[in-house]
Write a structure and sequence with these properties.
Layout lengths: L1 H4 L6 E11 L2 E10 L5 E10 L10 E2 L4 E3 L4 E9 L7 E6 L6 E4 L1
Antiparallel strand pairs: 1-2, 2-6, 3-5, 3-7, 4-6, 7-8
Length: 105
């Protein structure tokens, strides 16, 4: 873990790819990319209310705690119950070695 603390900052992007309703749940797809020159270590994703920033629980992710090489991107699908959240959602990506970024879901 000490070595990870010495990593240069990663520079992430988050792009919303679409949102749909499937029965009693919502689904969103996002693309998380690393546009920096350093690996983005243990990038944690979270679905949040746009107002207040509270996490939407429960949310399931097709992938999480991502490691992204420079120039690499990954598409992730999020699922949550329709009753758990309202309009105005954001997906937050927070690397261990960098600042968090968000995009609308």
């Amino acid at each position: 873990m000490r070595s990870l603390g010495g990593l240069p900052d990663a520079r992430l992007t988050v792009t919303a790819l679409g949102r749909t309703r499937k029965g009693d749940r919502e689904e969103a797809r996002v693309r998380v990319g690393n546009r920096g020159r350093a690996v983005a270590a243990m990038t944690r994703l979270s679905l949040r209310e746009a107002r207040g920033g509270d996490r939407v629980l429960p949310t399931l992710y097709s992938d999480n705690y991502l490691w992204l090489l420079p120039g690499e991107s990954r598409t992730v699908t999020l699922f949550w119950p329709r009753t758990a959240a309202h309009a105005g959602l954001t997906v937050r990506a927070e690397p261990f070695n960098g600042s968090p970024v968000s995009a609308g879901a």
